[in-house]
Amino acid sequence: MPVGIFRVCLVVITAIVNHPLLFPRESGTVPENMEEIIQKMKEREQSLRLEQLRLEQEIADQEARQKIVEKAAQVVEESPEEKVRWDMWTALSMVIFLLIELWRQDFQEGNWQDTGGEEDDMAVLGKAFKGVSFPDKAVLASFYEKRILGTTGDMARMREMVEGFADDLLEALRSVCNRDADMEVEDCMGVGSMYENWRVRKPFVCDLIVPFAPPEPYCFRSQTWCSGDSFPPDEQGYGTIKVCRAHEDVAGCICDKTKLGEDMLCLLHSQANTTRPSSEMEDLLCFKNTQYLDADQVMKWFQIAVTKAWNRISHKYEFDLSFSLLDLPGALKIKFRSGKSIAFNLTPVVQYENSDVYFISHFPRSSLVADLPSSTHWFLTFAVYERRFIQLISKTLPANACHISCLQILSFLHGKQCSLTGPSGLTNYHLKTVMLHLLQVCPSQDWAPENLEARLQDMLKFLERCLHEKKLYHFFIGNGRVPEELGFPIIFQRAEPLNLFRSFVLHRDVYRKTVDTFHEMLRNMSALINEYTVHIPHAHTNGIHKESF
């Protein structure tokens, strides 16, 4: 501030000293050209005025800076009570923000199976589907009776025939295997759509899983992506199976990892009880130079064993047995002399600990999605628990509940559309997962048979929203609401939810093809259903409103 005042005074003194009338030229006379003098005075006055404005601006800036410094000093000298009050409000704001963020995450992860049953959720379907007409109740009932029930009546006899033959084949397989060196095969179990009574498209194929175990003194020790081991994101849902001796701990003895020297012996493992060499581990179907079970080796072993077993019992049957696909371990086809055939799958699996979760060597996948990460990574199947859950929840539903009917209709429509426009990234397993989510969140009375139309719409809306978000979570993994009666392993309930649509995020072309197929199915839905619908008199349907969405 004093410096500014000094500068102003200095400018004023300089102007006075340099004034032409105060100190005239040496001639002592006033110049005759007064206009020229006045002009120069005006110019000098203008320059001084500009200088004065500049100095005033500097003074104003200094005053502003001084005020900022004084304000900062006041903040520094603030009382401890005010500091505490400000810190309290800051902490409270942070706590509120964190609570909101945690609630948002819980809402997304804990309610990922919410169906959004309100009418506002219809907007999710977008502009392209607002004009899509939905078949009315009478048309759906006629379609289901003619197309679904009319073609699935002989499934029970087919299951009985396949199970009986599979038991005989596996008994013969045990007799041709070396009990001291080969894998031990257990009884088979039926899983999938044929045993959950919702298979609709021919040919009907029975899926049977066959648990197997290594010969003594070996055992399987499994590791999953959610057991604490590091698995990359593309290996979620998979696990590895290590072949160990029964007395070995999971980490293994240190003598396998350290050179003890010629004069030192391991007190736990004698020379006769050392780990088998690489060639013998390969005999146990392990990947080369590892102790991890190889799915490709298991497939070759199983196909050879099934071939030997059939050669032993073929004389008892009046049909032929062959492999329909060599890329699957037990894709078999029975061919009768009449020309008819029955297809079924025998797939070797490994039990996860003492549960009914199984590692499956070859899992049916969409042809548009990439294969397994490697042959030592096994996919986990929860098919046994899925079948039990459907049976358990069906006991609480009204008689002739429409949950299976909805799944059958949706499976038929999607399969028919894929036969017209090519394969899609959607599978029947995705469709079943949608039904499982809705079974858990919808009240039991909502599945009454007269609600078939409404529940089918719910499934389509739920599926469309999942496609839009590229998120369809596995029903069991990360679901803490699984009924206790199932005895489901807690480790999978506590795991992070597994997104079955993760491949759509990585493969945009597959996602685009899948969405286009789904949209085309919606547009063709009425035509596809009417194609298989018995004629309904016009008087009966005239009063029924065709709902659109």
Which structural traits does this protein have?
549 residues, alpha+beta, Beta Polymerase, domain 2, ten-stranded mixed sheet, disordered C terminus, Inositol 1,4,5-trisphosphate receptor-interacting protein
Task: Note down, in words, how this protein is organized.
The protein is of the alpha+beta class and 549 residues long. It has a domain at 128-247 and 281-534: Beta Polymerase, domain 2. The chain is 46% helix and 11% strand. It has 16 helices and 10 strands. Strands 1, 2, 3, 4, 5, 6, 7, 8, 9 and 10 form a 10-stranded mixed beta sheet that branches. The two termini are 76 Å apart. Residues 20-31, 108-128, 256-260, 268-277 and 535-549 have low confidence and may be disordered.
Sheet bearing the most strands, described?
10 strands, mixed
Beta-strand percent range: 5-15%
Assembly classification? single chain
Radius of gyration: 40 Å
Outline the fold blueprint:
Blueprint: H1 2-17, H2 34-76, H3 80-110, H4 137-148, H5 155-176, E1 184-185, E2 189-191, H6 193-196, E3 205-213, E4 218-224, E5 238-245, H7 278-283, H8 295-313, E6 319-325, E7 331-336, E8 341-351, E9 358-360, E10 378-381, H9 383-394, H10 403-421, H11 428-441, H12 452-469, H13 490-493, H14 502-506, H15 508-531, H16 538-541
Parallel strand pairs: 3-8
Antiparallel strand pairs: 1-3, 2-3, 4-5, 5-10, 6-7, 7-8, 8-9, 9-10
Organism: Semnornis frantzii
GO molecular function: protein kinase inhibitor activity
Coiled coil: 38-65
